[in-house]
Amino acid sequence: MKRVIRLVLSSLCAAAVMLGAAGCSGDPKVSTAEPATLPVIGPDSSLPTGTAAPSPSADPTVPDTTKATEAPVPSTEETSAPTISTAAEPTEPSTAQPTGPQPSVPDVPADVTNFRTEGTNGYVIVIDPGHQAKGNNAQEPVGPGASETKAKVSSGTASRFGGRAEYQVNLEVALKLREELIKRGYTVIMTRTGHNVDISNIERAEIANGVNADAFLRIHCNGNDNASVQGISIYYQTPGNPYNGALHDEAKALNKCLLDHMVARTGGRNAGLVESDAYSGINWCKVPAGLIEMGFMTNQEEDAKLQDSAYQMLLALGMADGVDEFLSTRAPKNR
Ligand SMILES: [Zn+2]
Q: How confident is the model at residue 155 (pLDDT cuts 50, 70, 90)?
C-alpha cells in the first residue's frame, strides 16, 4: 500500500513559509512581539552553559508586503485513508503537571538560539519551534546552489478563535518535547528558546547539520481556508529531491514513527505523510528531518486542543515515542 499521500493544502502553513508568502493562511492575529513567557519545565534547575550562536542580524528595512499573498499551491488532493487504525484513545494521561520528585531538567534562558542540553544516551536531537515573533522576508536560496529564493522565515499562522499564535504554540510544545527527551537521556538542541530571535530556515537546518543530528524535528501548526480541515501531518523530501533525496528513506522512517505515535497518543486525525521538495528548511538538511504539522489552527476544535497544555503534552509524548522507536534500530551517529 502506498503510504505516502500527495496532500497539498491550499493554505498550507509550511508551504506559505517556504514559498515566501508570509502569514501561512492569512494574517496572523498577533502582530506584536510579546515578551517571552517560557514555561517552567524543570523544578529548581540551574541554567546550563548554552552555546548561543550569534543571532543573525535582522533587516528592519524589509517591508512586510506579503501578508495578502497566498502561496500558489494546487488544490487539495487527499487520496489516502489514515494509516493508523487503532488511534482512538490517548494511551496515557497528561503528565504536564508532575507533583512528585522529577528528574531535574535544566531550564532554558529566553531568546537563545542553538541552545544545547547534554544527555546521556549518545543521541542528539535538534528541535526547531517554527517561526518567531517577527518574520523576516529577506530572501535565501531554496536549496544549496539554487537560484530560486524564498523568504527567510515568516511569523506563521495564528488561531482564528482568540488563541495564541502559531509561533507561541510551537515553542510551548517544543519545550515540552525538550523536557521529555532530556528525561529519556537525549542531548537536545533548541534552535530557539524564545520568540524574539531572527533565524532563517537555512540557519535552522544548519544547526541540525552542524551537530550531525540523529533527528531534526521542526514543530509547526497548519492553516487552511477550509475551516473543517484538521489532522496531523508530516512533510519531508521526495526521493528525487535534487539536494538531499538520498535522505528520503531515513526521513520517511523517522516521520512514520513520529506520526504513528503522535496519533496514538492524541487520538488526533492522521492526515498522512507528505513528500514535497518545496521547503527550504527541508532541502538544506543533511540529517533526517520532519516538518511536523501538529494540527490546524483554522479548525476550531483542533485549535482548542493545540492551545491546551495537556494536549500539547500528548503531542510531545508522541514525538518522543516516535524518536525512541526510530532510533531503537540505529546507533548514535556521534558516538
Ligand atoms: Zn508554520
A: confident
| Centroid of ligand 1 to alpha carbon of 234 (angstroms) | 12
- Best CA proximity match to 78, nearest among 125, 26, 12: 12
Q: Estimate to the nearest angstrom the gap between the alpha carbon of 199 and the chain centroid.
A: 14
Q: What does pLDDT average to over the chain?
A: 79
Q: Which domains, and CATH codes, for the chain?
A: 4-28+68-91+105-327 (3.40.630.40)
Return the higher-pLDDT residue of 56 and 239: 239
CA 74 to centroid of ligand 1, rounded, Å: 18
Kindly give the distance from the C-alpha atom of residue 41 to the centroid of ligand 1, in angstroms, as a whole number: 23
- The C-alpha atoms of residue 308 and residue 170 are separated, in whole angstroms, by 12
The Cα 179–Cα 144 span in angstroms is 33
Ligand 1 centroid distance, CA of 331 (Å) = 31
Q: What is the DSSP letter of 252?
A: H
Name the grid cell of 321: 515515542
| Residue 130 CA, ligand 1 centroid: distance in Å | 5
| Amino acid 103: pLDDT | 64
Quote the CA–CA distance of 113 and 96 in Å, as a whole number.
25
Question: Stretch 194-217: mean pLDDT, rounded?
Answer: 98
Query: pTM to 2 decimals?
Result: 0.74
Judged by average pLDDT, the poorest of 98-107, 135-144, 190-199 is: 98-107
Instruction: Please give the Cα distance from 259 to 137 (Å, whole number).
Output: 30
Residues 6+ apart with CB under 8 A from 158: 24, 26, 27, 28, 29, 30, 164, 165, 166, 223, 297
> Pick from 79, 125, 81, 14: which is nearest to 263 by CA?
81
Three-class SS of residue 227? coil
Contact of 113 with 194, CB cutoff 8 Å: no
CA distance 55 to 30: 23
User: Secondary structure of the chain: what % helix, strand, coil (to 5)?
Assistant: 25, 20, 55
